[in-house]
Amino acid sequence: MSSNDTRHVQVMIVGSGLSGLGTAIRLSQRGLSDFVVIERGPDVGGTWRDNTYPGAGCDVPSHLYSYSFALNPEWSRSFSPQPEIEQYLRTVSERFGVRDKHIFDCALTAARWNEAGGRWDIETSRGSFTADFIVSAAGVLAEPNLPDIKGISSFEGEIFHSARWNHDATLTGKKVAVIGTGSSAVQIVPSIAPEVAHLDVYQRTATWVMPQLSRPYLRLERFAFKRVPGLQRLIRALIYTTRELFVITQVKYPWTGIALEAVGRFKMRFEIRDPELRRKVLPKHRIGCKRMLVSNKFYGALDRDNVDLVTDGIAEVRSGSIVSEDGTEREVDAIVLATGFHVADSPTFNLYTGRDGRTVSEAADAEGYQMYKGTTVANFPNIFFMLGANSGLNYTSLIYVIESQINYIVDAITTMEQRNLQSFEVRLDAQVEYNEKLQPKMARTVWVNGGCTSWFLDKHGNNSALWPDFSFRYRRMVREFDIDAYDTTTKTL
């Protein structure tokens, strides 16, 4: 396509991670072929293509972390490493024949609603498009959150974010600092600690770390996954049911989390010899307030002689050192930023301009970050946001919500076709009423009352990330496109 041509498609999917790829497959299966997937990277995979740091893997059991329509009997372990998940997504894209619908190395630069044309005008790094519908599947773990630390730009050694790992950098025998102790750090720290000369781990807030029941699958098990009808689905259902029980400790009755905290305390005492280190890693918030971490190696790595846990905070970064708030200066050759991602304030929200000329970010700044059923938002016709406000989960597989939203999106597009409709836009009163019913459920959760701040909260202090109920209730809610909640226009000849 020439950069001067404008191509029209019925559906533009932005991003080809789990959300975008799954949407493309479902559209194809429903006979909707006029779509394209733009992906800023060189291949499918999203976060599992980008996060290639040492030790990268999934903290959701393998059998649950796959599409329901494409179970994978080839998982090597009960918790899958990153390369296997990336390969799984590549295999699925080929198996379902949607790779030719992709334009790789193509980044969205702007999308503006065209009121007169009843469509979206889209600019990308590889030319212009128009589309009847947009599915924003950029992902919640797509934009690294880079810390604003005094002097960090003056550092002369290697420095990179965990999601942009520099594989050309050699850490062996060097003094390394890891900033952050979240989901990525608990995998990175044990992986690099044995090879570096010294490792400083900078912790802002201690987080509960639970055991990971990870093991390799036996050859006989993998044979059974392939040959025994229904076995994988049974295992998947059992895992799903077990994971849903976390709703009790996080949403319904947070006080019951005491039992899980006892497990965490025992694990801490069993794996860490130094009582002062145990004191540093003991969380002050209720379990589940921040995302629970799973690792069998993190505490052991912190207890190594060549590893120090620093809890004083960072005052500044110099050319070859980090100065903590107590005035201690520590020499360092390389810095790994395990500082998470922009979620509620994703930079991608600046790219979509709605009916009244405001971007999603501008609307969120004025009114708070809220959506209708986690997928649509007033003032933005004909666009769906995958894993939008209050549709995330922190206790089970996000793929369950992704597939639920895909059902809603495909039903919406099909309904629009069947009724000869040009545009839809969720009514503001429907959006407000939905959120007014949602927030009381949030008020009693451990995420709000657990005594912590987390990436679940937006800058207004609201939990705009998570769904405060059982995930099967979310799926039931978005089973069909409820067109009565939307203002629509009819196509004109």
From TrEMBL:
InterPro entries tied to this protein: FAD-bind_Monooxygenase_sf, FAD/NAD-bd_sf
Signal peptide: none
Gene3D superfamilies to which the protein is assigned, alphabetical: FAD/NAD(P)-binding domain (3.50.50.60)
Taxonomy, superkingdom: Bacteria
Protein name per UniProt: Cation diffusion facilitator CzcD-associated flavoprotein CzcO
